[in-house]
Amino acid sequence: MKYLLLLLLSIPLYLMLHKYYPDKFEEKYHYYFTGFIIINLLIIYLLTYETPFIYQLLQNVYYSDKNKPTINLNGVDQNLLLKTQISQNQMNQCHQCHNPIFSQDLYLYKLQYIQPIQFGGVNDISNLKMVCPSCYSFQ
Ligand SMILES: [Zn+2]
Predict the structure, then answer these.
(1) Ligand 1 centre from 120 Cα, in Å?
(2) Tens of pLDDT along 78-87?
(3) Which of 6, 52, 85, 120 registers the highest number of CB atoms within 10 A of its CB?
(4) pTM, 2 dp
């Protein structure tokens, strides 16, 4: 609110300066000043009445890199290291049926998100599970 008052006070100040020192002002300065006022009013409007929109916008910008799918869930061999690690985290058992996972069959197992990304899950190894082909086909 104080900022809006300051902005509105700057208009008569500008006009007064223009009145007393007309030779210092070129025509382009009017356009600059008008643009400055309009952009500031727009920012004040957005921050006051469209706060959720601004918040969402900034959040999207902030998280745009982090939500990129860095892990390819359909890859076969490129996820072998990741699969080995998740297999150890699951104590070499399928996440659903608890049948043992054999390291030579790792390429048959499927990686899935525990909490899917579109439902708020994080794209992190802690949110990944590995299921055997039969569990995967029955989902
Ligand atoms: Zn299973």
Answers:
(1) 24
(2) 678 888 889 9
(3) 85
(4) 0.43
